[in-house]
Specification:
InterPro entries: Uncharacterised_YajG (IPR005619). This protein is of the alpha/beta class. The chain contains 4 helices and 7 strands; from the N terminus they run H-E-E-E-E-H-E-E-E-H-H.
Length: 205
């Protein structure tokens, strides 16, 4: 009887070890699968100026145009693998420099003008967040404009939000294109703002 009990205990122990090994192997497969789906974050994001060839430039008196970056961070891409593990990427040129060049192509400007046209970049960020079934992307661009002429002034705000996913594996080329479209949409909204242009026509001589 003693031998039989010992044999059963040994068999049960072997089965338990097999189960443990199977669980460890499965966990390894899941871990490797997760690593395979984890994207390699690029060092920088290439941002381009919007195409405004379809825009008619406004016939207005020149303004003194400036762009101020008021964001609390320099990066435009944040990939959040876990709540405590994130990777970041910045733009290849400063966002304020790109926006200033694009706006100067459109708005009549003169550094000696008494009309102060100030553009504040409040947000320009893509968050790529890990979910149970992959990744989701959230693009957010926010710009505020304040124009002053003497004692008169006007303030306008332009915000673009775009969401995408879930993606099983992140395509950073697609993410980059979507972020650019969000930036372009925001700047085009600013340039085509009829309320702003009418105010300038009425208050700037």
């Amino acid at each position: 009887m003693t031998d039989k009990k010992t044999k059963r205990a040994t068999t049960k122990g072997r089965n338990t070890m097999r189960n443990i090994i199977a669980v460890v192997m499965l966990a390894g497969i899941i871990l490797l699968s997760g690593c395979a789906n984890t994207p390699n974050v690029p060092n920088e994001v290439r941002v381009t100026a919007p195409d405004i060839t379809d825009f008619q430039k406004p016939v207005l008196q020149p303004v003194r145009l400036s762009v101020r970056d008021q964001r609390t961070q320099n990066h435009v891409l944040r990939v959040e693998h876990t709540p405590d593990n994130a990777e970041f990427a910045t733009t290849h040129i400063p966002m304020a420099t790109l926006m200033s060049a694009a706006l100067r192509e459109y708005w009549p400007h003169d550094d000696n003008s008494q009309v102060l046209f100030t553009v504040y970049l409040e947000d320009a960020l893509t968050r790529v967040v890990a979910q149970n079934d992959g990744y989701e992307a959230e693009h957010h661009v926010a710009v505020r404009v304040v124009v002053r002429s003497g004692t008169e002034w006007i303030g306008r705000q332009y915000v673009t939000r775009v969401s995408g996913g879930p993606y099983r594996k992140v395509n950073f080329e697609q993410i980059n294109d979507t972020f650019n479209r969000a930036v372009h949409a925001t700047l085009r909204d600013l340039m085509s703002d009829q309320i702003l242009q009418e105010w300038l026509q009425d208050h700037v001589q």
